[in-house]
Every structure is written in structure tokens, then in C-alpha cells.
Amino acid sequence: MNATARVLPFPGPGGTAAVLTGLGAWVPPRVLSNAEIASRLDTSDEWIRARTGIHQRHIVDPGMSTSDLAVEAGQRALKSADTDRVDALVLATTTPDRPCPATAPDVAYRMGLERCAAYDVNAVCTGFLYGLASGAGLIAAGVAEQVLVIGADTFSTILDPDCRNTAAIFGDGAGAVVLRAGSAHEPGALGPFDLGSDGRDADLIMVPSGGSRQRSTVTPAPAGSEYFTMAGKAVFRKAIFQMAGSAQAVLRKAGIGLHDVDRFVIHQANVRIINGVADMLGVPVGRFVRNIDRFGNTAAASVPLALTSATESGELRAGQRVLLGAFGGGLTWGSTVLRWPDIEAM
User: Fold this and answer.
1) Of 341, 17, 15, 29, nearest to 188 (Cα)?
2) Which of 34, 116, 125, 270 is labelled catalytic?
3) Is residue 275 annotated as a catalytic residue, yes or no?
């Protein structure tokens, strides 16, 4: 298919690499079970588990926003990295506190980082990978020595409560990492990135109204158009194809093979998508980290939440080679590789 796809090398021209040195995550306390969803929609716990692999998800209480989750996860990542300062904060989110201004400066201020550069990145479920590449670029260019990258989303705030498909899939959460300038040869150094997009399929994953295109018309927004929509079958196929292709592309750039990867940590969209990527790559599914059963699809928070869960459980261990990958609206996709560092998740 014709699509934009570039393989971006790191470290930068000066030899400086971005090294992952801190990791943290946080989810809101409220747990929404399959049984609770089934009690008000035409579905069942068995149907949701069979179709998605999800048993439960966490959602925000009224009055809680994306920035609240981002602050908690960011603070934990700073504690993990044993630092209290960064030069930049990159927040990957599709559910900002407001359309304007960006949410990142508020997060930075509340964390006591108000003098650092701060901005949002919106690549939907690929947002964290785009954020990592952005942070690595700041370090490679010499703009920053330390960067906090946060993936945070509260998709429960943009879902149609009467849609069983989206209500059953998405949860809320946040995950964060601290990157520092270092050597490309040390554990935690991010390898090459593969990033791509295909805007021809932008309407497969979207919120139809609320933006300038709809607001510039004289026609009122249709009822329900403020909610998130997704063409499930088409997204399913494209997610598998693009994440598998991106993984192969980034491994070629890194000069290693699939057999060299100890763990695959990809976007937790649906257990059948994870299994599909494993099948397309010809890799045992046991090498894929999975926590979707407990958290659902947390969009930009998905990959850092999975990293945190796997580190806490011991599934991710120092020295393992890890491939990160994601696919999201836009359409967008991305991947990178690293040797897992000896860090404690918070």
C-alpha cells in the first residue's frame, strides 16, 4: 500500500543516544468490570473476553482529567530515575484537558517543572512511540539532556456510553519514562525508530465533531458526533499489518533479526490483534507482553503501562532486547528497539 514510512536512525550525528532511565505508571482507582458493562448494554462478560481478551478496565471518576493521571505517572517516573528535573516534557494524548492550550505545560507546572519545555503530541494509540522519538530527537540535537515522556488518556470521557463495542474496549491510564543523554552502547539506549502514517484512512478512527472542520460550517453537529468512532474490522486488519511491518523495518535498520528479540511490547488494543501480529511475524505469542486483561485499551498509555506491568512482574529483565510497537488513528504506527536497563518501575 502507498503510505508514508521513514526509518529514522538514533543516535544523532553527535553520537548521543536517548537512554531510558526511569519508568512509572498510574491508573485511576475505579474499576469497571465486564459484568457492569453487560448489566446496561447488550453484551456479556463471555462475549467481551472472547472478542477482546479484556476482563476489566480502570476509568476516571467525575472531575478527574487526563492531566491528573499524567502528573501521577510522571512523578513516579521521576522517582524511578532518581531525578527531580527534566529539560522537556512531551505528553502523548488524544484526550487533552481542553482543546486549547496544550495539557503538557499544566502537567509540568503541577510537577514543579514549570520552566521546562512542554508540549502535546497527538498520534492516538501510537502517541507514546511518537513521543519517544520526539524526546530522543531533542536529546540527539543537544536541546535537552533529560526528557520526560508521558502517555496519558481518558478515553472513557469521549466514548458513547450506549456503544457496547467501544465501551467494552477502552480504559483510562497513564505511563511515563525518563530519557537521558547517554551512549548508544549502554542498556536502555533507544535504537532506531520506524514511524509512519496513512491519512487516507483517517476516518477509520476519529471523533467526527468538535474540530475546525465541523465548527466552520453553519450546520449543527449531528447528535452523537462528539463521541469516538472506530471501524473495527478494517482497523483490525490494518493494525496487524502495520505493526508487523514496522517491527520488521526497525529490526532491519538495527541490523538484528526477530530471533534476537526477547520480548515484544506492543499496543494493547485487542488480544486477537496481539496474536495476529505474532502470527504474521512467526513469533511465539509467549514472547509478547500482555496486560490488556486488566487495563483494556488505554491508547497512548498502553505501551508504558505494559512496560511497567512487565517490569514489576519480572517478565522484563535487565539485558533483554525489547521491541516496542504501536498502531493508532491517523492512521499512524511506529516501533523502536532497546536493551532493557536495570531499573525499578514505580
Assistant:
1) 341
2) 125
3) no
Residue 259 is a catalytic residue: no
CA pair distance 199, 101, nearest whole angstrom: 24
What pLDDT digit, counting tens, does each position of 33-87 carry?
999 999 999 899 999 999 999 999 999 999 999 999 999 999 999 999 999 999 9
Q: Return the pLDDT at 4.
A: 42
Q: Which CATH architecture has domain 190-339?
A: 3-Layer(aba) Sandwich (3.40)
Spot the catalytic one: 34, 58, 116, 267.
267
Q: Which contiguous run of DSSP H or E holds residue 334? A: strand 332-339
- pLDDT tens digits, 264-320: 999 999 999 999 999 999 999 999 999 999 999 999 999 999 999 999 999 999 999
Where do the CATH 3.40.47.10 domains begin and end in the chain?
11-183, 190-339
Q: Domain 11-183 class?
A: alpha beta
Name, in order, each residue with C-beta under 8 angstroms of 339's C-beta and a sequence gap of 6 or more.
187, 188, 189, 319, 320, 321, 322
0.85 exceeded by the pTM? yes
Angle formed by the axes of helices 271-281 and 232-254, to 10°?
40
Annotated active-site residue 297? The verdict is yes
